Amino acid sequence: MEIPLRSYGTEGSRGRRDMFTLQEKMLGWQLIESFRMTKPSMCEDECRPEGSETLPRGIVAKTSNLEMHPLWGPPNKKKSKSPMSLLAMAVGIKQKQNVNEIVKKFPETDSVIMLFHYDGIVDEWKDLAWSSTAIHISAVNQTKWWFAKRFLHPDIVAEYAYIFLWDEDLGVENFNAGRYLSIVKEEGLQISQPAIDADVSEIHHQLTAREKGSRVHRRAINIKGPGRRCYEDSTEPPCTGWVEMMAPVFSRASWRCAWYIIQNDFVHAWGVDFQLGYCAQGNRTTNVGVVDSEYLIHYGLPTLGGAENEKSSLAQEKTLKQESLSNEGQTGLPESHPSDARNAVRKQSLVELERFKNRWKKAVREDQCWVDPFQQPVKQKR
User: Fold this and answer.
1) CA–CA–CA angle 296, 302, 307 (5° rounding)
2) Which of 35, 116, 262, 353 could make an SS bond with 270 (beta carbons 3.0 to 4.6 A apart)?
């Protein structure tokens, strides 16, 4: 039986087309599989946040902020031309009026307020005009450093240009937040604090005292006075590269570093201030300073563990240090008198200070890759 050539050609062409189509599909599958197999090697150097490896990059939200959002409608965006700042304070209801004066120094359009309530009282703040827009966190008998370690993670506050981590017992009559930030930016200060008015405040270290007629100072000279001797060529805290823990102000970058220094199991953070220079994003003698033209009064109210009218002294601290080291294992607080509780708090602070020093030394010994940027050259003996 003869098969028409035309018919044969038509069937043959269709068969060849089907074969080519199948080959094309196979080739496509092979290419896809090949790409899937090679993709891990192509992307193995990609830096992805831990835990997000199974997610497409575009959906990963790495940071957050403390902005409130309405349950419906567009978000209430603050009309700020400059980067936002965050003021975070540990507060108690007894200092409500003073805290109110501090908060009013920070413009609502440029600032976010975060209060850590160490006495557990929150509702009694509601009558203040700014209270409804502030973030309120309550945990009884915790310090601002305990709160900061848990609620001010760098990825949460990454949006804020400056972090004010202040005590509640500060007088702000001679302080303006806008002017302060302007000076900090112009001077390139990564870590700073307003100066303390020595005429009406208790001064523990000369560097924090206001220098009248000055705008900013970065070192203190203390040759004859009490406390640490500081000379013109001193390069270490508290002579230079240092701020006190009562009213520090951190840039975004410096806070990302400082957060890691705060120890998770300590509450008082004593000793951390002497290491903050490592977070100065460069030379600590240049990037850390005290602003004189915008200054504070430090009332020195020991609100945690004691009566408001108690004052500490350096002499008392020395005595407490000896007692605390000999009773390091004791954790119970005396109940006979508020001053006993206050002394116990200070003893615990000093215990943590010694532990922090030892922990830092141990970390330095064990990290063979770490190089101290501020290590002093060894003097040759003659």
Assistant:
1) 130
2) 353
pLDDT for residue 364: 95
Q: Please report which confidence band the pLDDT of residue 52 belongs to, taking 50, 70 and 90 as the band edges.
A: confident
Q: Which residue matches tokens 């939200």?
A: 61
Burial class of residue 20 (count of CB atoms within 10 Å of its CB; 0-12, 13-18, 19+):
exposed
The Cα angle at residue 24 between residues 22 and 25, in degrees rounded to 5? 65
Q: Report CA 278 to chain centroid distance, whole Å.
A: 13
- 224-276 pLDDT per residue, tens: 777 788 999 999 999 999 999 999 999 999 999 999 999 999 988 899 999 99
d(CA 360, CA 354): 10
Average pLDDT, the chain: 84
Helix (H) or strand (E) segment spanning residue 194: strand 191-196
CA 208/CA 230 separation, integer angstroms? 13
The whole-number pLDDT of residue 333 equals 45
* Helix, strand or coil, per DSSP, at residue 374: coil
pTM for this model (two decimals): 0.78
Provide the residue count of the chain: 382
In sequence order, what DSSP letters do the residues of 241-283 get, joined into one string? S---TTS-EEEHHHHHHHHHHS-TT-SS-TTGGGGGGGGSSS-
